[in-house]
Amino acid sequence: MRIEHLAIWTKDLERLKTFYMTYFGATAGNKYENAAKQFESYFLAFESGARLELMRRPDIPETANDPIHQFLGLIHVAFSIGSEKEVDALTARLKQDGYLVLDGPRRTGDGYYESCVLDPDGNRLEITT
After folding, report:
1. Among 3.30.70.270, 1.20.1250.20, 3.10.180.10, 3.90.1200.10, what is the CATH number of 75-128?
2. Measured between alpha carbons, how far is residue 63 from residues 11, 67, 106 in Å?
3. Which of 92, 126, 125, 129 lies closest to 112, judged by CA?
4. Handedness of CA 16, 126, 28, 7 (dihedral sign)
5. CB-based contacts of 122: which residues, under 8 Å, 6+ apart?
6. Residue 77 CA: distances (Å) to CA of 8, 32, 37, 39
7. Would you state the pLDDT for residue 60?
8. Is there a shared CATH topology between the 1-57 domain and the 75-128 domain?
């Protein structure tokens, strides 16, 4: 068994698609649109085979959660990008481009090398080796 994909609601489908393509090398499939439900989405594929679905529908409310603090439920998506040097470089690039870096790069107590950033919608992303 494997997890087939994760899905994220967004208010700006194109902005989020561009973010994951630019910083994480995602490839976008064709845009799916269902006019009757006012629903549209993209599936993004990553080199590893992992997939992320970005979805938009105008009636989905904004979250009341504060993305900087922890909360119950899904808390982050982790991307393994290869090396400490690559973690450092991508984290610096995201920070330079105005994205909030919450933590790191650092070595965790259990030996991981990682940083934590927010995507344009405030979703936590862990960048690790």
Report:
1. 3.10.180.10
2. 11, 9, 29
3. 129
4. negative
5. 63, 67
6. 11, 23, 28, 23
7. 83
8. yes
Cβ-based neighbour number of residue 127 at 10 Å: 24
**Domain residue spans of the chain:** 1-57, 75-128
- Cβ proximity of 32 and 54 under 8 Å: no
pLDDT for res 23: 98
45: which 2 tokens?
A: 């594929």
**Domain 1-57: CATH class, spelled out:** alpha beta
> In a 10 Å sphere around its CB, with 0-12 CB exposed, 13-18 middle and 19+ buried, how is residue 120 labelled?
middle
pTM of the model: 0.86
- Tens-level pLDDT at each residue, the chain (129 residues): 788 899 999 999 999 999 999 999 999 999 999 999 999 999 999 999 999 999 999 888 776 666 666 555 677 899 999 999 999 999 999 999 999 999 999 999 889 999 999 999 999 999 999
